[in-house]
Every structure is written in C-alpha cells, then in structure tokens.
Design goal:
Length: 270
C-alpha cells in the first residue's frame, strides 16, 4: 500500500485534511512511521503542518507554553526549562530526541510517554484545535482519558503549565538499559512544602496503566506529612492503589508493582 504525505501551512488547513478517510497527523513520526513500516494498514495519508507556532516555546512570567511540534532536543536546550532537561534527555538517543515531539508524546502508550508523566505532575493543560473552531484547552488528565476518542480533525497544538518553584519538581525514570532505555517505571512529582511539611503533592506514574496516571492515593497520604523515611511510609503503602501495571518485554506487571514503592521512596527523599 502506498502512503501519501500532505503538508499544509496552517493548523486549520491540516485539521480540515484530517477529516478525510485514512488520514493521520504526522508530528515527529517516531511512532507513526514505525507503525507504517511494520505494516499498519489503518491509514493511507500522512498530514502535517509547518505552522511555526506549533514549534514555539514561550515563558511568560510563571506560565510555560510549549508547542506540540517542539522536540525533546528543543525542550532540553531551552534556557528557562532546565528542570525539564532531565526528562527530555531521558527519551531515546540524540536522533530520537531531534524528532520526537511533545505532542507525539501525549499519544504514546506505555511503556513510552515519559514526558507526559512529567506534564501530568505539572498539572498541564492541552490546547486542542479543530478546523473552523477556536479550539479548547483541556486538563491533561482529561485529555489522556479522552485521547482515543478525539474526533477526526482535532489536533493537539500546545501544552501549558505553571513553572514550579525551585526544587519542587522531581523526576525518575527506571530502565534496564542505561541511560535511556525503555522505562520499567517513570515517576514525576511536584511537592510544595511549608516549614518542612508537605502542603500539597502531585504525583504521576508511567507504566502503571496503559497511559500516564495520577497517583491520587499517594498525594493524599503525603499531605501534611514530613518528607522523612517515617513520614512517607503511608504514601508508599498505598502506591499501588488504583494501579494496573503493564506487562511487556521489559518487565512484568508483578515486577513493576514490587519495585514501585522502592523507587517512589527514593524520589521523595532525594
């Protein structure tokens, strides 16, 4: 089967083209092109746009807006996003990071999607455009729940979040192949503390479901606790609550469940 590539100048034009049968949006192509090479016959047309706004990264005050076409390399090199460099640099090698986009990562299934794990902890919002409409902004948690049901023609155009304060953001990726292998698990956290007591926490896990998920039981258990070995014990005890870890060639669900509290503890106490 032959594949057609159609390139448009604007998001609106690309969105309209996606309403055609067999059309799929092409970002960096790290997943979609691989699927085509492996014989996926569910699409026949690649649609892409060269709209420069999709590659822009803007920091205004405390608000960060990253275009969906921004690459992992672009994020890692941005002078104001040093706290995300570790996350972006944990995704593949240089060739992959030069292609892999923030928008593409939003659609990556486990064990991929490490950058989305970080965005979920950061309480990010996703801008979604549709031809002929002004578009909407969805909380990332809502977007992840609905992404498989997005109507044809909708394009994720950007993610927006508030810049965390110094040392509030934490990220850990555990892999068998160092330093950038596929994740066994990935964990991201934003912890706010007042007088050495955790006042609020947002925790996200990768590989604990088919897509990144919030660890709400952990968040509740951490509230009002000190970040000490004894203080975090209740959170570690409920780390698996609501989780359904995946089994793949990298690790079994059983193994992921066993090591999650260990690595969560290391992240929280680091």
């Amino acid at each position: 089967m032959s594949l057609t590539l159609r390139t448009f100048s604007t998001v609106t034009e690309a969105s309209a083209a996606l309403k055609g049968a067999g059309a799929r949006y092409l970002g960096g192509g790290t997943f979609l092109v691989r699927n085509a090479n492996e014989g996926d016959l569910s699409f026949s047309t690649f649609v892409r746009t060269i709209d420069p706004s999709l590659s822009a990264i803007a920091v205004s005050g405390n608000e960060v807006r990253i275009g969906a076409s921004a690459t992992m390399t672009g994020v890692a090199c941005h002078r104001d996003l040093g706290f995300l460099a570790k996350v972006a640099n944990a995704i593949g090698g240089p060739a992959i990071r030069n292609m892999a986009t923030v928008g593409g990562n939003l659609f990556a299934g486990s064990p991929y999607g490490d950058f989305t794990v970080a965005l979920l902890a950061l309480d990010a919002r996703v801008s979604v455009a549709d031809a002929g409409t002004p578009g909407v902004e969805l909380p990332l948690e809502v977007f992840l729940a609905e992404r498989d049901r997005l109507h044809a023609g909708k394009i994720a155009t950007a993610v927006t979040f508030e810049m965390p304060e110094k040392d509030e953001f934490r990220f850990l990726k555990v892999s068998r192949v160092k330093p950038r292998g596929v994740a066994v698990i990935s964990i991201a956290a934003v912890l706010k503390e007042y007088r050495n007591v955790i006042s609020s926490a947002r925790i996200a896990f990768g590989c604990m479901a088919d897509r990144p998920v919030r660890a709400k039981a952990v968040e509740s258990a951490l509230s009002g606790r000190r970040r000490t070995k004894e203080g975090i014990e209740p959170a570690l005890a409920v780390a698996m609550e609501g989780m359904s870890p995946i089994t793949d060639a990298i690790a079994s669900g059983w193994y992921r469940a066993e090591v999650l509290p260990v690595h969560l503890g290391r992240l929280l106490l680091a």
